[in-house]
Amino acid sequence: MVLIGASILSADFSNLKEELKKAEEAGVDFFHVDMMDGHFVPNISMGIGIAKHVKKLTSLPVEVHLMVENVDLFINEFKDMDYISFHIEAVKFPFRIINKINEIGAKPIVALNPATPIGRIEYILDEVYGVLVMTVEPGFAGQKFIPIMVKKIRKLKSMIVEGGHDVKIFVDGGINTETAPLAVKAGADAIIAASAIFGKEDIKEAVKALRESVGG
Ligand code: DX5
Ligand code: ZN
Fold it and tell me: Where are the catalytic residues (predicted)?
């Protein structure tokens, strides 16, 4: 079954507790928390405290997506999180970062910007829990899925299968009922959406539609 991650970037922050509850009841599998520093991406999203609140307010796994330049500086802040996604473009020594994430008891996920070739992560595939394929340029919710990314997901899936690696593919950006099936057919194990979940009037209906679009 495909996992659905709800990115809280489009949630109503004045009512976060309710929003999380609604998404949880609607059947999402995990929460995705976008952390931005205004350097790695041209935006600032939310503080570390919000991620900690989310973790306290839900029993579902929480994935923190670090869109920050200095990954090393922040890892220790996320001790309670289930998954920590870091960008390969931001780190010089990925093995060191992966070790640090493992040491605090979280699972490491490596993220790739759309134009970053999958070859960049070939030698760390045995060390990570997942690969987060960005299907928009990171920084904002509500952008359009970049179609050529379907090919990238497919290539990554082959690389994983051929190498016999045990790695999940997460897809993030522009996911909706039209693009989700494309990502899943290409090999995605998990899809992440902000606007297609929290941006909709009826969260329950939105999650149901997403789930149906990928065949349940
Ligand atoms: C983009 C973030 C995404 C974003 C997705 O920088 O990493 O997680 O929240 O938003 P949608 O689903 O609206 O494209
Ligand atoms: Zn994200």
Answer: 34, 172
